[in-house]
# Entry
Amino acid sequence: MNRRLLLLFIALGYINTSFAQKSKKESYTVNEQQIAETLRFLSSDDLQGRNSGSEGIEKAALFLEDVFTKNSVKPYFITYRDTLSNFDKPAYNIVGYLEGNDPKLKDEYVIIGAHYDHIGMATAIQNGDTVYNGADDNASGTTAVTELVKYFAKTKANKRSILFCFFSAEEKGLLGSYHLAGKLKQANFIPYVMLNFEMIGVPLGMDIEAYVTGYSRSNITEKMNEYAGAKLFGYTDFAVKYQLFKASDNYPFYLEMNIPAHTVCTTNMNTFQYYHHLDDEFENMDTAHMASFMQKMLPVVTKMINAKTHEIALKK
Ligand SMILES: [Zn+2]
# Structure
């Protein structure tokens, strides 16, 4: 082989792979079918409403551990299971992490979470139904986090490390997140931001696509819109009216760690009719909306994780 030709081929090969890597990164597509499969399973009658400590939620726990294993997400503790110390039945947060690719920033964590429990079964049959499937609340947020697991496992685009948390016993009073936030505070754990996903199964129907709870607590809305290059997030009156900031798993992280900790949501609490209702079912979810929303969230979450400084900060 001619040396000059060899060098040329090496150069061409390099250009080729760098193009391929670039287009691979840019062309990652959130798969609606995959979202529908995950959501359908998590909200199926077989899981009996995912009450904490029940046989039904155990099936969800096994499923989520499997998502971690298949995507080479490592257990943060000895196993994926973080046993709640504040609940009277056996209940587990499912916790895994992906190490960051920057030698310095990887010491810090962005916490991405969603609760996977719900409220179980009704005591009496209503319209032939007894299962609180909790498709929007919160099989949808759980599904969103599984999509982020798959995206970051595949692209390895994260400079900071990511702690993925599926919380149990949220519906019992945020017990899983209180337990975990307290435990991490005692450990040598350096958090940056906590982003929690709740109720993203239906579109908001406003001129924004989503909101975070605790709008006025930090600059996260502004920064996420900047990362998205669009006005994706904005203010809603009901998030304040119902004090949603204190109503989900972001809140214990804010209290324990004093960091920006918010819940991302697309459900309009003024108009959604199925909150803790037997009809919060897969059939009433909009998986095209979920796929499109998560597609827009990928660059937002990536830029958040990779920011050189703590751009997102609490307001004084
Ligand atoms: Zn919920």
Remarks:
- The chain has one domain: 30-306.
- The mean pLDDT is 94.
- The longest helix spans residues 3-26.
